[in-house]
Amino acid sequence: MKKVFCLTLIIFFGSQLFAQDYSFNKFNTNKFYIDISGKTMPLNGNWGLMGGMKAGYNINEKITVGLFVYGLIPDKIEKNYINQEGKDELNMGYTGFEVAYNHILSNKFSLTGNMLIGAAKVEYQDLGGEDYFFIAEPGVGINYKLTDWFNLVYTVSFRFASGVKYSDFSNNSFSGLANDLSLRFGF
To answer: Which residues 6+ apart lie within 8 Å of 35 measured at CB?
Structure first.
């Protein structure tokens, strides 16, 4: 009888131990986040640097939704940059919605698949006029968690532009591979 009682206790307490969640892969412990981003991308045969922000909500550890805004930095950086001395200055920006899925690799790293969908505006400063068009930008990224409230996020994406009808630009002028480095603050 003593053996049956001990065996019953071992099975009861053993099953309780295995029922506990010992997962150390808790990644998104914050519900809200704000990203400060820098993005490089091709623009009409040259390249451009955009600064931007994202703000979002972590529905759970895997799914996030948010808003984004990016704007072209107008400074003349180097000879292959889109804006040059003596040429009309290009102004561009885009904004919209973001949806992302996070695949947690460890308590420090996650892979992210995301989709940005929104509208863009482009104009030359001296030429006048402007154009609005559609932007879709699927991407994949790696998220490195430095602290519970601060992450580094590197994303590679491909931007599709549709509906461009301004100056000498076409859809291909604003479509292409983009690189994004973000500082993510969670709260």
So the answer is: 53, 54, 55, 56, 153, 182, 183, 184, 185
Rg of the Cα atoms in the chain = 23
The C-alpha atoms of residue 19 and residue 72 are separated, in whole angstroms, by: 52
Q: How many residues does the chain have?
A: 187
What residue type is assigned to position 131 of the chain?
Answer: D
Structural domains in the chain plus CATH codes: 2-186 (2.40.160.20)
For residues 97 and 112, what is the distance between their CA atoms, to the nearest angstrom?
Answer: 16
| Residue-wise pLDDT tens digits, 21-31 | 444 446 666 89
Per-residue DSSP letter, 105:
-
Type of residue found at 150? F
3 state DSSP class of 12: helix
Cα–Cα distance for residue pair 144/170, rounded to 1 Å: 36
Measuring CA to CA, which residue among 138, 131, 129 is closest to residue 170?
A: 131
| Tens-digit pLDDT profile for residues 82-107 | 888 788 888 999 999 999 999 999 99
- Token pair for 97: 């919605």
